[in-house]
Amino acid sequence: MTFHERDYMEGTLGTQAVDWEQRIDTQRLREERKQRALDRLQDSDLGALLLVSDPNIRYVTGLAMTGGSGADHYTLLTEDGDIVHWDTADHASNQRKNCPWLDDIRYACPGLGNVPRASGRDSARQFLLSKMAELVAGAMEEYGVGNERLGLDIGNQGLVNALEDAGVEVDTGTAQDVMLDARKTKTEDEIECLRMVAAICEAGFQRITETAKPGMKENEIWGEAAQELWRHGAFVGGGYLTSGPNTWPKHQANTTDRMLRPGDLVYADFYNIGYLGYRSCYYRTFSMGEPTQEQKDAYEIARDNLYDVLERIEPGATTDEIAKGFPDMAGEHADYYGAEEPWQMTTNHWAHGLGLQLYETPLIWRGLSPEHPIEIEEGMTMAVETQEPAGRQGVRVEEMVVVRENGVELLSQWPVEEITRIE
Fold first, then answer.
1. What region holds the Creatinase N-terminal domain (predicted)?
2. Which of 98, 161, 177, 406 is least crowded, fewest Cβ atoms below 10 Å from its Cβ?
């Protein structure tokens, strides 16, 4: 099987900033993302966007949103390309010093999230919502879009009502479509961020091979792997490592204090590991010693299912046709779960988009794609994952890819032909 080959010396040149080699251009990354969002905004009938979703804020501003207490930061993007960003006092003052590409940063009133929730009074919550809406309406007037429709990227009815009370006409559906369309294909700098986070995950896999041995606990090994990820500059926002009977069926996705034993299968899921905000989803399976024939056979099934799907992905292909590469209900072992419909088998075999969130467009899945297909576009990035039971244990395998003109480019490079054996 053939996949897209990168050009010579293209990709993962280093995580540091240097003046002697072109690497990820963060200024270009910010500018191109903002321009994509602005282009879609100008093609719509909206005059401005109010972004409350953290990934959307980061996409337009470049600010590393971490969730916080919820809606204590939000961003206005106008049809003329002006940006107003509101944040908490400490964050806003820091951003004013360190983010020269943003010239209008204001103190936020947290109308949603933990602050109003903790206030204990409806009157306090209404005050915060009204003040937030007042700030946004005032900024729209300042920038000449006060009489235009405002796109809101979340569907919070309380905020919608507060904005409308402040004289703003609000549209939620269009704003979400604008941002989904802007983010569904990636720039080369975004792709390089995903390629980099894949490389960092591989450093984590290597640490597992050097650390795992009988008597070590899952959480000890995971701690070693997470340390390696942080060492390379990653944000570790998720992930886990499981072993033996914890590997199938997929349980709570928790790393436990179970001790590894000879003959165990081990798999690591490096999901939600971030580099400059771009999130991974990357599985590999390991064996403690020589895997049994049953384990080898299960791994071969999972890998072949995965690559069947990968070979179907190309620009112009539709997700309903690609989803046929995933196992049917028998191959999903639906009888084990007591499942009767494909939609009941969420996350076991599917492909999902990757970017500033773990799940972005597209989603390829037998539970959805046959009746609701979409077309694959060049520049989409995604993770494709499969699993298979092996007796009382199981294997999982996953690749991170970008759709190219002639198929997919593998962003992930950890060996996939066989289970990685740990002596």
1. 33-153
2. 98
